[in-house]
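Is this the right way to post structure tokens for a design question? Let me know if I should format differently. Anyway, here goes:
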């Protein structure tokens, strides 16, 4: 959804002019970056999306806790492929060329899906490698809950 909104904002340069289209594109980026703080956390910590999110945190923390080079290289390459696809997509949107836009969008989405899969695999591999990562998927439980009190009696 996000790349399509961004492409639509850039596509509008033909009818609204370049400055208004750039303003819309910036507004789309600001709104989409703010949406992540409004969404609730994942309900299931073992889901594909949750593992990808944990892997992304590990990836961003790789300077403090090193990641194996065999895992780092594919993630870096997929990130670069996604950025390239986004740039091609943005160029196609700006030029109002649906073929270039579609090709860039396909490269971007394919790279992002595989990127998220690799981040999930990185989390599974690294969750036992450092104490910081070990309990990320654990849900806190209230000792005062009715279920706990009933089990203790």
């Amino acid at each position: 959804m996000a790349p399509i909104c961004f492409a639509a904002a850039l596509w509008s340069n033909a009818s609204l002019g370049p400055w208004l289209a750039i303003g819309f594109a910036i507004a789309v980026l600001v709104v989409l970056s703010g949406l992540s703080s409004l969404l609730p956390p994942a309900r299931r910590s073992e889901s594909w999306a949750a593992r990808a999110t944990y892997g992304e945190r590990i990836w961003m923390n790789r300077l403090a806790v090193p990641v194996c080079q065999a895992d780092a290289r594919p993630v870096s390459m997929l990130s670069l492929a996604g950025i390239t696809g986004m740039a091609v997509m943005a160029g196609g949107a700006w030029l109002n060329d649906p073929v270039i836009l579609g090709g860039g969008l396909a490269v971007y989405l394919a790279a992002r899906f595989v990127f998220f899969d690799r981040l999930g695999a990185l989390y599974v591999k690294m969750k036992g490698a450092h104490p910081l990562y070990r309990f990320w998927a654990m849900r806190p439980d209230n000792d005062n809950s009715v279920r706990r009190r009933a089990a203790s009696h």
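Format looks fine. Someone answered above. Worth noting: Helices lie at 2-11, 13-16, 18-38, 48-60, 69-94, 98-126, 131-134, 146-152. The chain has eight helices and no strands.
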